[in-house]
Amino acid sequence: MGHGHAHTANTAPDAATLAARRKANWLLAAILLPVTVLTLIGMIALWPSGDRSGVTVVDPYATAPGVSFETGTVQRVAIETCPSSQSAIEAGGEGQECMVAYTQPEAGGGLQPVEITPEIAKSRGVEAGDKIRYLNLSEVMPDQPGTLIFVDFVRSVPMVLLAILYAVVVVAVARWRGFRAILGLVGGFIVMGQFILPGLVEGKPPLLLGLIGSIVIMIGVLYFAHGFSARTSTALLGTLFGLGVTAVMAAWATDAAYLTGVGDEDTYQLVNMSGAISLSGIILCGLIISGLGVLNDVTITQSSAVWEMYELAPHASTRRLFAGAMRVGRDHIASTVYTIAFAYAGAALPVLILVSLYQRPLMDTMTSGVLAEEIVRTLVGSIGLVLAIPATTLIAVLVVKATGIRRPEEVTVGVPGGEALAVAGADPSRAAHFVDSEHDGGARLAGDGNDGGARVPVPDTGSVPQPEPAEQPLTRRARRRAESG
Q: In which residue ranges is the amino acid composition biased (Basic residues) (predicted)?
């Protein structure tokens, strides 16, 4: 038996590797560029005109002449006779008690008694130091001077601080990529505010609005946050597949499950604002948009997993690479499915509590109009999410295999007779060789335990005495066999 040794080349990408990576980008661009062009054309065709002449908006924050919104800081709170009951008391009637917040107006002046609504008094109440907004009805109710009614809390400071903290945490951990992700998120909301929402108001096709708007958001967010690379393009293809599945399922489910969208007060207001607004269309568009964040998460993760696995094991077969990546994907599916479900359950918690108090059969409760929309949204989003994972994995595997991104290394294999043969494409960090002249009559290059190594024929040595072979390090397979006895 002969011997030999392996030489590891420079691990920096060589010209062949860089060319293969460019090939991957061109291959993906050939698919994504036409999709992007068609999406932009559709966006231009559906762009809202901005004409709202047919929309009648009743602004709940608009005030009648003589009525004003004011803000102030609560100094103290007391449970006493409601200021609005003074006229009833003066007429010989009985006054009602309520929570009264004595507030210092921002505009200046003395403390003003602001009447707190019963629902706020029961839920949280008002405390000293709270900044509130209230309605001043003094001028329109001259018989009840000083009638001030609580409207809402002023939340500007805590919300701005929370947003700043969020941005700081993201940038501190994810650095430049996190900063770009935040900017991409802002861009996504701009698309929603300038394209999707006005389009729904004008009666544009909701399926196309949701699908085109979502594609534009995903293209911008993915490339802006993760950069232009084959991995990002692969994730985008998987995301587009998931969006397509979600759109088809949403279109079917909206009609089949009779989702009318008239289950709450806001939808009734929309119906009265304009005849062009379709409530079922709003639900359809919402079903498509609602799963964007989680869908983006799983596709970019799966794409990165495939590329990392391929770089670690470039000689793994297509089937083995796909199976390994899907093991990661199945764990991701298991976690994200209940993530979506509990996210929607948390958002609908007040409705769930209310429905749980009704004495109705479980099936009737789950299929009622109050819960049906949330359940369908969860199921539709989950179906698109689950199917996007194997699709993204398959696309990523096909791309890395089609481009052949690997570093062709040269391993010198020693054979009997002192001859040395070079085997290209081997992984020298893993490769070891051995010659089995008894069984195979040739040398086999063994990689990571597979039989896919290159076979090199051994020349006929006849009866020429062979030198004693030098002691060779054991391969991993040989070590495992030795350790197992």
A: 476-485
The pTM of this model reads 0.69
pLDDT band at 422 (very low <50, low <70, confident <90, very high): very low
Secondary structure of the chain in the HEC alphabet? CCCCEECCCCCCCCHHHHHHHHHHHHHHHHHHHHHHHHHHHHHHHHCCCCCCCCCCCCCCCCCCCCCEEEEEEEEEEEEEECHHHHHHHHCCCCCCEEEEEEEEECCCCCCEEEECCHHHHHHCCCCCCCEEEEEECCCCCCCCCCCEEEEEECCHHHHHHHHHHHHHHHHHHHHHHHHHHHHHHHHHHHHHHHHHHHHHHCCCCHHHHHHHHHHHHHHHHHHHHHCCCHHHHHHHHHHHHHHHHHHHHHHHHHHHCCCCCCCCHHHHHHHHHCCCCCHHHHHHHHHHHHCHHHHHHHHHHHHHHHHHHHHHCCCCCHHHHHHHHHHHHHHHHHHHHHHHHHHHHHHCHHHHHHHHCCCCCHHHHHCCHHHHHHHHHHHHHHHHHHHHHHHHHHHHHHHHHHHCCCCCEEEEEEECCCEEEEEEEECCCCCEEEEECCCCCEEEEECCCCCCCCEEECCCCCCCCCCCCCCCCCCHHHHHHHHCC
In a domain, 34, yes or no: no
User: For 341-356, what is each residue's pLDDT tens digit?
Assistant: 787 777 777 777 777 7
- Domain span at residue 471? 5-9+408-483
In a domain? residue 159: no
Same domain for 274 and 241: yes
